[in-house]
């Protein structure tokens, strides 16, 4: 999962820096969340998940580690874990559309279209002018026939 334009050596150095930061301030969520991001970029998904879990334990009211935990759960093919994480992100940031959009996509992937629609409607209520939100909701209002 190496990031485009970011050589592996740079990711390794970034990982080492994040590991040092975690060692210096293990009770802060941000270094754990950043370490999880690096692990995820390196394709080390189990380690990313563990780092995000540490971050959520340290800052359960911060939506970022919950969103990242949800994203890595999707990467791992664990949609139910992703749903739990995105729901917690939505509770931590009730005015943010991102957790609702991500939740809608997971529901959509599971064929839970009613739940997906509700999630997209919530995202739209939070961000009424957002074209991506409108498109996701329109997909559930006027489903296209499948071939």
Short description:
With 147 residues, the chain is mainly α. Helix content is 73%, strand content 0%. The chain contains 8 helices and no strands.
Description:
This protein is mostly helical and 147 residues long. The chain has 8 helices and no strands. α2 packs parallel to α4 and α4 packs parallel to α6. It is elongated. The two termini are 32 Å apart.
Keyword list:
single chain, 147 residues, mainly alpha, 8 helices
Helix share, percent? over 70%
N/C terminus separation: 32 Å
The number of E-state strands comes to: 0
Shape, principal axes of CA atoms: elongated
Number of helices: 8
Tell me the structural class. Answer: mainly alpha
Rg estimate, integer Å? 17 Å
Extract low-pLDDT stretches: none
- Strand proportion: under 5%
Instruction: Calculate the mean pLDDT score and round it.
Output: 88
What about the largest sheet?
none
* Oligomeric state of shown chains: single chain
**H and E string:** HHHHHHHH
List the helices and strands and how they pair.
Blueprint: H1 8-24, H2 29-41, H3 45-58, H4 63-75, H5 79-92, H6 98-109, H7 113-126, H8 131-141
């Amino acid at each position: 999962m190496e990031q485009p334009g970011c050589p592996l050596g740079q990711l390794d150095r970034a990982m080492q820096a994040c590991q040092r930061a975690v060692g210096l301030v293990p009770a802060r969520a941000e270094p754990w969340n950043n370490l999880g991001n690096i692990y995820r970029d390196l394709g080390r998904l189990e380690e990313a998940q563990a780092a995000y879990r540490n971050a959520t334990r340290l800052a359960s009211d911060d939506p970022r580690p919950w969103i990242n935990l949800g994203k890595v759960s999707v990467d791992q093919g664990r949609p139910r874990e992703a749903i739990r994480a995105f729901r917690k992100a939505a509770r931590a940031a009730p005015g943010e559309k991102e957790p609702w959009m991500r939740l809608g996509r997971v529901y959509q992937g599971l064929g839970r279209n009613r739940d997906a629609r509700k999630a997209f409607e919530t995202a739209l209520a939070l961000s009424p002018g957002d074209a991506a939100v409108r498109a996701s909701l329109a997909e559930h209002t006027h489903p296209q026939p499948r071939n």
